[in-house]
Amino acid sequence: MQDGKICNRCGRELDFWDVQEDFTIHRHIGYGSVHDGDIVNLHLCCDCFDKIVDECKVSPVEEVGV
After folding, report:
1. pTM more than 0.90
2. What is the pLDDT, as a whole number, of residue 65?
């Protein structure tokens, strides 16, 4: 059971800023995945969040105030 204090991607303990940003996904997974029916609790540190966003072919970032 994950208590939310460790980044699931790199395994590093979440620091104050990571907890403040709260890059968390909590979802019940439906059909179409190898995890059908599972519940996912994914916690990311700021560094891993940035790396995942940078790896996206289509940016998920909506710039505000442009």
Report:
1. no
2. 83
